[in-house]
Backbone:
């Protein structure tokens, strides 16, 4: 009598992996978290404590999890460097795949996931661009589609993390693909979404500094950067990414059209409380990306589950994830080289050999 | 292997009933909606379409639903006038009860529910003061408990509905108990929560007008009203309730302490989108109470379910619901009589015979 | 060739007096501050230093200042208890008079100023309700007049001062007329302005507490109070006044109409700067009434000067000042007595003997 | 006895000229507007009506105005193309000079004004960067100087005008120097002010589009543009300028430091009124640059007057105006050429021959 539930496993139990696992465990009535996998012993210990009592199987090895009886889908939240490989192996094993962004740190490797998915049209494969599931971004997108602001012409968008003085981001830079691929990829995806998925990039340029983490230079990364994307049809997206925010996570977007403008989260807020005290009026902010987008992550999980169970198309095309990586990697390259990167007519970086 | 789920039924499928039913059906992984009941044929038809496919049984009669095999709990969302009776019958049948506010329109009848619950300490019985489950109110309460603003001394709170030109509120006034019992009861409950559940009221006074709905006078009701509650220990709560808002639902609260102030939702917002257009910058508002508090309703359902399954105390004491009705009814009385209503030392209205 | 300038003197050099003197000296091109008077020796010393070099004569005695050769107008900023007497003597001496609010702490004495002014229609006599000269209040009033919100039906307005732990407000309470006459008189005047100058009050009621300054009780005053004004034509104004704000001066107003609502200064701000820091986003507030309304005070001085020089009617009718005191004193009476004060048909307090 | 007043003349009575003239006439007690000059007959007619009655002499010819008896200072508000020439002639005639920005559209011509001023150290010569006189920018600057946000590392700043569908900006583009010189020069000046006047630019790059005014291309201009300035000491300023805003003038600035961030005017507002109506909550914006900065213009005039009368140094160094033009012109060049412009070690554009 009870409706059928999607049996899903989560790969990777780092910060995002734990959240995905808890989400599928507690917030997605149509899904049943049946397995998790992680090579990290302490993460497996966490899983035994928090998920074991609900009957979730805990694997050290991703391949073993793929063989879990009855498993239908996987959510990949491992380190970025194995995203593509795990996605392709999941597809090969006949599982639906929800993969954390980015698919990979290069367009070429990202494309290999798209190619694998193309060979299995029966499976649902989606890259998790969480903002596309956020109420506010969806409302803004619907308003743009309805013509409220005329032709969207300029987008300003930023992904700015709280300063983490522990040095985390230096270590993380080895694998992240760089700040434009790790952070700005969300903003790049938004630009594609708002301007049109098939918008052609003409050039990108970027500059970056290390205001607080000089150690990032060793990995060709920066802690604050500004990037500009020129589109072939006379539009501009300009981006700011940072690891240095004092007050909280600041992910803001402006979509500027010929007849109006929309902003999303221009002044971030944790909730609706305001504090009046000596010194003024104050409000708190989400302290990380998940704090800002937790409802979006839940909805992403719910909708992905619905797509798998009801065999409907996933709301974010997988090819978008390749485009976003291509642009992000080009920005990263421009930031390091100091040179503008021009794209050829096919919308691919002319100097894409560098990517 | 799958964890046990609470089998619950929803009584009443009006505006709030539908929402409760969908909530328990889709947003509470540990609950299973197994039955609904409503005397209204069109509401039953809605249920057959939206809930039938998931195996939910649809009853015309509340008693029949109570006899549904395996039913463990009921959520009562019927018209206010039957809240108390259905709650008492649910308790008598050995079901956990989550009852929409108010328990009744008089303190005496409300008390009868408390008495019934007292005879069945094994059951969870809770009145749904939804704001207590809202993230922002909870954050504010935690900050007050932590001493952030010193001693809370003055509370301003309002519950203001959008203007409904259909005449709905006139018809509704026959059963609602009046604007202070229907709307301000939330604000009264907040005052008790922030000032302390055992705070003693000294007097209440109120004034009201009919700015848009003169027909309300026939039912001794008003469309805009201001009430003032004096507490015996030198505190004040002052309330505004209205059925006349143009922009959206406006439920705002200020808690003013000796060292600071907190506001909750001082400027309501639907989401984080802002619209720039000729005429200025604009943002949309929730259009009704549920729009503002939908996350709170979901959390209320989740937590009530947890309490039932795990046998833990419900987070809102049932007695609070009686106090809130007593104060609300006294405000309503004062608004109509034009006289201040004084409470005796026991915290009960001296003129409570009128209530 | 240079245009003629109004020769004006300022009486009283306390906090507001100093500001008025500096205003007329520096911000009103068409006025020339020629004299000041104060019985306080230290205030005269301040004047010798700050105004003497500009040729301003400093008097210990108000009568002597009135005899200053060529003096055309006086601005009265002395303690409230001498406002009316100085105003009447200024009128008798043939001077235009700009008098700080309130004219007096009783309606009767206030009326005596109106009577004196009526005998000299050639003179400009105005009570300084500064908010009427504030850009934002004027914009709101123009929008209401234009019908933007339908019929204004409910006004919420507050005048809330920063906590001054020095005990200043206790000493001040002896002369101020009480918190409703001293603070809320601005809000009362706004209600009259927005509802119509000839609006008839039906009743007022008020409650008050001493949350931080119990010493105020000796002078029948309170540090936090809420007042409600019922109008005969079905409108309500409700007011909050406080001496206990932590963050800054909070003078907010809402005008709620049948088709919309306007707010003025709902979230106070010192300027357009926002501070992002650990703990959140913060902004500063004006720390006192003058900080909020300094532009309004300057404009008040400019417009009063224009009225005198160009013989045009003053923008605030003097009779309004009597009405405001009548209502304020009735609220103060209600707060102390605990009884509602009802007004008779002529719009005067039925129990006005008490005032 | 009345204090001495500075006798000043205003050159040019276009939009800004009229405002400067009214300012000196009405808002600067220590100044006396004695003359104006403009080659435009209709502007002279306006002056006869509005300024003639106050005794202001109206000239068709700037040289004639310079010979006005007793004239001590000039405010130059003519078209940009004559700024430098009029300033140099004013200096030669021994007049203090307040010149509207920019001094010229090239750094070379701007420098000629600095050179002329250097030969007359007895005169006050200032370029009117109005934002430096704005309360909010000054407060932000003081906070940065006090170390509130650590080391300022990234500045985002924009100057965005309301869409003017009349074609005004196309005609204006012939003389304005382009959008970066005309609009962003304020933001460039702010970057220099916040980062330090002697900050060295390493490179600038820019992109631009014509979203609404293709006619601008004829004059090598754009209606929306983004520019990025790299500083040699590891800082970034990024700028947006637009002629296409729907809601009003949007001049916002963020100063991002290693320990915090300040924003100025992130959400523009005309005043403190908020409008609640079907569709949401709305507030109006200033409709042009002057609306946003009128208080700053008044203060600029007051302070310039004080400097002249009291022989104190002007608050904005004249050399800053050359730096700002150099950077603005390089951005404009980059936008048109599509190439990054690199500056040599002396902080001057390596390719400055192009400017």
Residues:
């Amino acid at each position: 009598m009870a409706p059928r539930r999607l049996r899903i496993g989560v790969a990777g139990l780092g910060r995002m992996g734990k959240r995905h696992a808890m989400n599928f465990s507690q917030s997605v009535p149509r899904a049943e978290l049946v397995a998790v996998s992680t090579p990290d012993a302490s993460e497996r210990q966490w899983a035994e404590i928090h998920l074991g009592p609900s009957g979730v199987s805990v694997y050290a090895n991703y391949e073993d999890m793929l063989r879990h009886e009855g498993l239908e889908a996987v959510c990949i939240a491992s380190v970025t460097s194995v995203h593509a490989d795990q996605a392709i192996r999941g597809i090969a094993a006949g599982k639906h795949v929800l993969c954390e962004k980015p698919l990979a740190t290069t367009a070429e490797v990202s494309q290999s996931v798209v190619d694998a998915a193309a060979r299995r049209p029966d499976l649902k494969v989606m890259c998790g661009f969480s903002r596309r599931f956020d109420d506010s971004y969806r409302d803004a997108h619907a308003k743009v589609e309805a013509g409220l602001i005329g032709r969207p012409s300029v987008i300003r968008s930023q992904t700015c993390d709280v300063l983490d003085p522990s040095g985390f981001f230096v270590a993380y830079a080895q694998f992240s693909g760089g700040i434009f691929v790790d952070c700005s990829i969300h903003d790049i995806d938004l630009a594609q979404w708002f301007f049109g998925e098939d918008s052609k990039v003409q050039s990108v340029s970027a500059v970056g500094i290390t205001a607080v983490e000089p150690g990032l230079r060793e990995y060709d990364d920066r802690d604050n950067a500004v990037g500009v994307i020129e589109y072939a049809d006379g539009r501009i997206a300009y981006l700011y990414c940072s690891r240095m925010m004092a007050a909280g996570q600041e992910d803001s977007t402006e979509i500027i059209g010929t007849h109006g403008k929309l902003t999303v989260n221009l002044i971030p807020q944790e909730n609706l409380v305001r504090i009046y005290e000596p010194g003024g009026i104050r409000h708190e902010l989400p302290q990380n990306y998940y704090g800002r987008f937790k409802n979006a992550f839940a909805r992403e999980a719910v909708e992905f589950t619905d797509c798998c169970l009801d065999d409907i198309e996933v709301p974010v095309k997988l090819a978008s994830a390749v485009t976003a990586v291509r642009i992000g990697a080009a920005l990263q390259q421009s930031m390091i080289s100091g040179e503008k990167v021009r794209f050829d007519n096919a919308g691919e970086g002319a100097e894409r050999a560098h990517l």
Summary: The two ends of chain D are 53 Å apart (CA to CA). The CA atoms of residues 343 and 349 of chain D lie 4 Å apart. Chain D touches chain B at residues 245-248, 250, 267-268, 270, 274-285 (CB under 8 Å).
